Model the fold of this input.
Amino acid sequence: MRRLLMVVAVAGLVASACSSSSTAGLQPSAARSLTPASCTTKGLEAGAASAGPSGEQPVTINLWSFYSSGEFKKYCEVLQDFHQKYPWISIQHTGGKSDQDIFRAVNSDTAPDMAITSGPDNVARFCSSNTYRDLSSYLQADNIDLAATVPDAALRYTSYNGDQCSLPVLSDAYGLYYNKDMFTKAGIADVPKTLSQLEADAKKLTVFNPDGSIKVAGYVPLQSFYESTQLYNGDYSGGIWYDQNGNSAFASDPSWANLLQWEKSFIADVYGSDGYHKLQEFFSKLGGPDSEWSSSHGFETEQVAMMMDGEWRNAFIADDGSKVNYGTAPFPVADNTPDLYGAGQIGGDVVGIPSNAKNPDAAWLLLKYLALDTGAEVKLATILKNVPTTFESLKDPGLNSDEHFKVFLQIFGNAHSGFKPLTPIGDTDSSLWDSFIDKWESGGVTDLQGGLQDLATQIDNQLQLG
Done:
């Protein structure tokens, strides 16, 4: 969940008027966009706002988002479409804003009218602290049946304790990318559907140099490698984050220990007893984490045969000019949870109206347009290369015409797909989990069950602190 929680863990892009921070908290589709920007519909071809057909008075709403650079400019195209539909509403769109910017603005009564954040991590805080308004009254007034409009998993990651204080606008979905030519050469006829099949195929696909170092990695399970971290969020193994009493279940749910033991066995089986160090060296030679957002990406340069990644990778492969002959599929699942195959990790942009917004009614029209209008969703998905978040937009023929991208539409719509449970501690639980996995992989955990119990206690203590 590093990118999503965002997870990317999504924490959001922290930016100022002149500079921005690292990409650690970015949604993948925005990870190359680091320059804050602003646009206004007043300055575009449609001109300034004019009175509405029923005498609505012109109004300008302030929209904040985490977007910047190329994605920001594309988003402005859809805002212009909204202005054409509601000519009395102008939009001042400011990008490069983080979740913390929103909290601070609400607390100082300088909040925008609407905000788009890069992931669900802070939704519980947005809802429970009254940072965002509960949208129920607007939904009821407009007779909107959310359950018939948006997949349940997306509603779960945009609400908290019954408070629908936000809605989804685009999402990421994670699946398997595989090199078709390498599959053919290795005699692999079908994609792996279970983790044991993933391991067997990875062993066939891995190629070593004469000195024993890795030339081609069949699959890299290290949670720090690109998006491999998503495998350890429980979506592919049935892991439960919290028990019925709200306590961390990392120690009480055996699926977590089983998953980590599978990983260690995988590394030894595919790469040898010193596989961890070989994989670290291999990743370093690829360029490390920075290579994920460049044309030197290991899959694009055909040094990695299979990987987990999000739907946006399709666009990166094309934009980077990679010649890799590849396919996409749902990611393999634990052998004892075959019913989960076809599902996966999802989660993405979240939009809400701050509790002290100056123009909440006009902001609701924009929020409703971006989150629930089929045409707007399809256009955003098309130009930003992310997954739309309504049932109707998921059916769009144009989006489904791309066989690579279609897989991710299906993953998002799968009833078993989801995002981790939301809590007021945001991504603290997932960050602690990531750190534990790093320690486990490097051999720093000698008592797995004891370590998981300590991890669960840490998370429970954080929950008590709030």
The first strand starts at residue 38 and ends at 40. Confidence is low (pLDDT under 50) at residues 1-36.
